[in-house]
């Protein structure tokens, strides 16, 4: 097991400013090498131009630390803002542009942003902003970082460590704030670089959003540390994916299991394997059958990983060829200490390892792992320097982690972690709802879909159902809206009055 607390050579990798210093270094060593490529526009920023763009954004934002809410669609501007915020001492709060008005107002109430990045100025009206908030549009950002028009010199600016604020469902299924410093993000990015063997010759494709931790850390930050290029797509496209790989000479791609399943319905391109040496998956368990089918059809290794927002993304990863990757396994611990413990019972907080090979709760510790949620929520997840993930699994004789399920109530829909409590609170605001419990329904494409069990105050009919659906769509992002509403006379409860969510989950699995 890696002793991360005593390994001095790796400790040096988490000094504040690692990301910006790497950008400066590669801008000096290979100024004309590609850093960012945007597939829809075909635009490229070289390392020299990327440094100029980051410096221009930092000078625009100023030296005083500010709170930045990032609500832009995918694209290279997101990458510039992430690195600018993390190196300029700012607090970055990413949020999906398609988030509901309710979610956007909550972000404003919680963080009171100084700057809001939106695609068009009218998009800001959904945020109920403070009078002092500066609105910056995508057009303004594009003009600011234009390498032709910019007069900014590509020299090194003073480093101020910034941080990012994310929302996760945590181990209990309730939304919780995760604050990650630049050094934590850089630590995990360095582990990605090492585990995937990234070099200056690599070109990584990401089709994932920048309002989650995966794309910024796994694709962007690891590539900057490696001096390689990031090919950024605003959205995944099943019809264009393979043409992107060929056109931009992609050597690896970061995906989620749902995308792997979608690609299985495409024809094998003639150019494969070409430059593509592997694809990696994260955010949700990948069915072993899909891994084998993908490798058999396309001849490309699939590297499964396991990550957590609480650890700045990647925690465990399968080795890339010629190393051994195992179907059904999330891989080996990378940059963390990991143990399998007896799950918590009745509030018991003792950390006791299970017998080797037995299933237990996955617990981790390391430089990138947070020690608390915002406002000290969910403190029972942090015990004696270890984070209890709420996920269940076991280690085989070779030390590979196999994930078998989870204790936590979170619903994983296509890699999107959804907190049941958040949806339940929205449903309970509807006048017809007396009680609500939300669980996941197994789905062959997305892994799970959201289903709501409710007790109504009046007669259940199609009109009430449609009213609930409209209510949910008003207050929730589209992927959080239940696909089905099930009416019950009463929710199942245990002796202490707590909802027996497991009974509802079992009902969904058996249906």
UniProtKB/TrEMBL annotation:
<dbReference type="InterPro" id="IPR025110">
    <property type="entry name" value="AMP-bd_C"/>
</dbReference>
<dbReference type="InterPro" id="IPR045851">
    <property type="entry name" value="AMP-bd_C_sf"/>
</dbReference>
<comment type="similarity">
    <text>Belongs to the ATP-dependent AMP-binding enzyme family.</text>
</comment>
<feature type="domain" description="AMP-binding enzyme C-terminal">
    <location>
        <begin position="422"/>
        <end position="498"/>
    </location>
</feature>
<feature type="domain" description="AMP-dependent synthetase/ligase">
    <location>
        <begin position="25"/>
        <end position="373"/>
    </location>
</feature>
<dbReference type="InterPro" id="IPR042099">
    <property type="entry name" value="ANL_N_sf"/>
</dbReference>
<dbReference type="Pfam" id="PF00501">
    <property type="entry name" value="AMP-binding"/>
</dbReference>
<dbReference type="GO" id="GO:0016874">
    <property type="term" value="F:ligase activity"/>
</dbReference>
<protein>
    <submittedName>
        <fullName>AMP-dependent ligase</fullName>
    </submittedName>
</protein>
<keyword id="KW-0436">Ligase</keyword>
<dbReference type="InterPro" id="IPR000873">
    <property type="entry name" value="AMP-dep_synth/lig_dom"/>
</dbReference>
<dbReference type="Pfam" id="PF13193">
    <property type="entry name" value="AMP-binding_C"/>
</dbReference>
């Amino acid at each position: 097991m890696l002793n991360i607390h005593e390994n001095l050579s790796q400790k040096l990798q988490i000094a504040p400013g690692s990301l910006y210093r790497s950008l400066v270094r590669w801008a000096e060593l290979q100024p004309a090498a590609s850093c960012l490529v945007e597939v829809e526009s075909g635009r490229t920023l070289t390392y020299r131009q990327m440094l100029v763009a980051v410096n221009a954004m930092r000078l625009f934002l100023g030296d005083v630390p500010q709170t930045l809410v990032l609500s832009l669609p995918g694209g290279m501007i997101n990458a510039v803002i992430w690195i600018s915020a993390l190196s300029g001492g700012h607090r970055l709060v990413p949020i999906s542009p398609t988030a509901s008005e309710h979610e956007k107002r909550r972000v404003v109430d919680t963080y009171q942003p100084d700057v809001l990045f939106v695609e068009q100025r009218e998009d800001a009206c959904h945020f109920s902003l403070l009078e002092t908030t500066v609105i910056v549009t995508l057009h303004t950002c594009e003009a600011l970082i234009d390498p032709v028009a910019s007069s900014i010199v590509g020299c090194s600016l003073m480093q101020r460590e910034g941080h990012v604020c994310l929302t996760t469902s945590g181990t209990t299924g309730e939304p919780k704030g995760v604050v990650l410093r630049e050094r934590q993000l850089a630590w995990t990015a360095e582990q990605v670089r090492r585990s995937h063997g990234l070099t200056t010759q690599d070109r990584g494709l990401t089709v994932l959003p920048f309002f989650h931790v995966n794309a910024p850390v796994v694709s962007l930050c690891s590539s900057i540390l490696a001096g390689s290029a990031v090919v950024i797509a605003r959205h995944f496209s099943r019809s264009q994916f393979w043409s992107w790989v060929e056109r931009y000479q992609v050597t690896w791609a970061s995906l989620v299991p749902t995308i792997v399943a979608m690609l299985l319905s495409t024809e094998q391109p003639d150019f494969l394997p070409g430059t593509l040496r592997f694809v990696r998956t994260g955010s949700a368990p990948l069915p072993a059958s899909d891994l084998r089918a993908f490798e058999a059809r396309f001849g490309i290794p699939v590297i499964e990983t396991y990550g957590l927002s609480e650890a700045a993304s990647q925690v465990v990863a399968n080795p890339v060829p010629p190393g051994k990757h195992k179907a059904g396994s999330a891989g080996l611990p990378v940059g963390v200490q990991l143990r399998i413990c007896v799950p918590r019972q009745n509030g018991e907080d003792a950390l006791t390892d299970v017998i080797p090979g037995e299933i237990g709760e996955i617990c981790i510790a390391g430089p990138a792992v947070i020690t608390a949620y915002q406002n000290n929520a969910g403190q029972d997840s942090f015990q004696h320097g270890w984070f209890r993930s709420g996920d269940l699994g076991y280690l085989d004789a070779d030390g590979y982690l196999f994930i078998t399920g989870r204790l936590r109530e979170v619903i994983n829909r296509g890699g999107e972690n959804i907190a049941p409590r958040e949806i339940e609170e929205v449903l309970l605001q509807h006048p017809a709802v007396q009680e609500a419990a939300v669980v996941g329904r197994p789905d062959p494409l997305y892994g799970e879909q959201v289903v709501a069990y409710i007790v109504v105050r009046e007669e259940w009919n199609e009109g009430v159902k449609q009213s609930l659906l409209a209510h949910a769509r008003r207050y929730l992002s589209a992927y959080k809206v239940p696909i089905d509403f099930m009416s019950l006379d009463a929710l199942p409860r245990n002796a202490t009055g707590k909802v027996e969510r497991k009974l509802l989950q079992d009902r969904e699995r058996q249906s």
